[in-house]
């Protein structure tokens, strides 16, 4: 890496679905660039706990904008993304007039940030696409069908890759999408995984208060939406609590299905066994997860989940926690023998795998140690950070190409036809 490539360079990061620094991947990327000498600005939404419209944090300028609601259904997404587009344009122009930026780093979802980047290409600004979610697969996972909006997702994905000068993939499956459906040059696509920061994910003593007087705690961290399978986790909890009363469940996170899952928990008479903590800051989150005896990932076996790397898996591993999850391609790559893998969407098998770990303390310790060593030696942010900086060394050293008009022309050549399937479940 050539440090001089970062000096006097300004990177604008745009993220729509989470506030920063709550979005840990984005914050790790931003701080890595800042520590290497670049100026960094971020545009993101407000959310509970992150309501300041402007914040200067660790030398990074954060501009937050309001959103009317978290999209759920066509009308909700239309309102959310239309509002986001307005703020991206307005704040990008405001930031550029204060200090011109050299790169726009767009983090999906949605695949609309290229619309903000496109006019800045007239000024020589490069567009880096940070591919967090495969939106066509996400659409199928949410709505279970194809049709107009599915093909619109394919078009927007292809348009995003056509406008992007460089692309970051979170794993090899996403790199396949960039090269296949996206048509990207392999030399311009780099895999940077969301490795846990071991300065943040610290192991510390358990806090028995979270067990509510029971012997064991099962922990879940993540979004609560339709594709996350929290309903399957609740069904597994119901089956476990029908057999024994010494297991408590902690669910950390928020999302569009949070209230529905709380209602389902009440219908299953699980109120005394399941605690919904909502979204938590690092300290209380770590307090709960360090107390857990087993951590779980209940993501449904869909193509979207199969090809996606879930941050929670590696964060569990960083805390030496054994894991239970459904058998998904990238989940198995991350955890390997740090996890037990339940059969398809069978809550009964998921419940049995949890019990197998609860009743086998030596196995829990062995799996936790394996996962921790895998993070320490292969998957931590220390390794991924260097990949990001090497990637940006190339981005910043490359002379901008006059790509505005070619990018526009390529948009009209985008065909909303699906490519080959990326993976099989």
From TrEMBL:
InterPro entries recorded: Glyco_trans_4-like_N, Glycosyltransferase_grp1
Protein name: Glycosyltransferase family 4 protein
Domain (Glycosyltransferase subfamily 4-like N-terminal): residue spans on this chain: 24-194
Lineage of producing organism: Bacteria, Pseudomonadati, Bacteroidota, Cytophagia, Cytophagales
PANTHER family per record: SULFOQUINOVOSYL TRANSFERASE SQD2
Pfam families: Glyco_trans_1_4, Glyco_trans_4_4
């Amino acid at each position: 890496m050539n440090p001089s490539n970062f000096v006097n360079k300004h990177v604008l990061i745009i993220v729509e679905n989470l506030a920063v620094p709550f979005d840990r991947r984005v914050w790790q990327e931003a701080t890595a660039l800042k520590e290497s000498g670049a100026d960094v600005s971020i545009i993101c939404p407000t959310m509970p706990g992150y309501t300041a419209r402007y914040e200067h944090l660790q030398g990074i300028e954060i501009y937050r904008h309001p959103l009317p609601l978290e999209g759920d259904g066509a009308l909700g997404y239309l309102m959310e993304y239309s509002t986001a587009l307005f703020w991206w344009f307005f704040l990008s122009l405001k930031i550029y007039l204060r200090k011109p930026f050299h790169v726009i780093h767009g983090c999906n979802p949605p695949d609309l940030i290229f619309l903000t980047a496109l006019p800045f290409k007239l000024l020589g600004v490069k567009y880096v696409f940070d591919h967090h979610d495969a939106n066509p697969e996400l659409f199928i996972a949410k709505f279970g069908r194809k049709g107009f909006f599915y093909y619109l997702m394919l078009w927007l994905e292809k348009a995003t890759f056509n406008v992007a000068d460089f692309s970051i993939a979170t794993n090899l499956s996403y790199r396949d999408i960039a090269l296949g459906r996206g048509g990207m040059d392999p030399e311009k696509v780099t895999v940077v995984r969301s490795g846990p920061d071991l300065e943040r994910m610290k192991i510390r003593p358990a806090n028995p208060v979270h067990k509510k007087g029971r012997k064991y705690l099962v922990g879940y961290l993540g979004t609560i939406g339709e594709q996350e399978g929290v309903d399957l986790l609740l069904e597994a909890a119901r089956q476990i609590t029908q057999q024994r009363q010494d297991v408590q469940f902690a669910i950390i996170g928020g999302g569009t299905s949070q209230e529905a899952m709380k209602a389902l928990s009440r219908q299953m008479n699980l109120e005394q066994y399941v605690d919904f903590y909502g979204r938590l800051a690092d300290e209380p989150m770590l307090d709960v997860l360090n107390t857990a005896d087993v951590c779980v990932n209940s993501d449904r076996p869909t193509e979207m989940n199969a090809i996606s790397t879930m941050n929670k898996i590696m964060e569990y591993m960083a805390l030496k926690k054994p894991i239970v999850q459904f058998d998904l391609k990238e989940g198995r790559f991350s955890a390997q023998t740090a996890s037990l893998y339940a059969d398809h969407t069978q809550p009964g098998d998921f419940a049995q795998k949890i019990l197998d770990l609860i009743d086998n303390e030596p196995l829990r310790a062995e799996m936790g140690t394996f996962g921790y060593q895998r993070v320490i030696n292969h998957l931590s942010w220390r390794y991924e950070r260097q990949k990001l900086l090497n990637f940006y060394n190339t981005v910043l050293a490359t002379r901008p190409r006059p790509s505005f008009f070619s990018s526009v022309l390529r948009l009209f050549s985008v065909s909303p036809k699906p490519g080959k399937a990326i993976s099989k479940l």
